[in-house]
Write a structure and sequence with these properties.
185 residues, globular
Length: 185
Amino acid sequence: MALALVVLISALAAVAIFFPQELLCVDSGPVNAQVMIVLGGGSSERPERAAELFQQRAAPRIIASGLGDDGITRQILLKAGVPGGAIQLEDRSRTTKENALFTIKILREQNVKSAIIVTSWYHSRRALACFEHYAPEIKFYSRPSYFVPPSGKWAREESTEIERRVRLEYIKLAGYWLCYGVCPL
């Protein structure tokens, strides 16, 4: 029995290591909603993805969520051609849970029934699960950004950072499930 458990855990660890995108990434595909929510963190790939989706008319408005990141996100969105009137800031959240709680309050006040979450691919499963957990009455979609490290000298450093974030994401998934009841499945 113990050997079977060790084999099972080893197999799950191997899958997690070699197939992180298949486990962590949730992409709803082309969808439309009333609003997009760009979560803070990452680098510029999240607001750039939101601007791309805005240009494709996926949603007419964008909420930039995240203390400190909201202003940077706004600047990137403006530079990418998103009108200032289409951008709203949520500037108090410091965690994914707070992103969800504080943004959901805004969504409910505005009677929003559908929203697209834009975050990094490795963060998309937990972010989507968190928003769905705290607001089951709202339909949430996930349209993550995909960061491709540049080639050349910095490529290995960027890859190492992504690998670190992916490993950390597995821990956070388990933590959110145990601490807050946010089931990632």
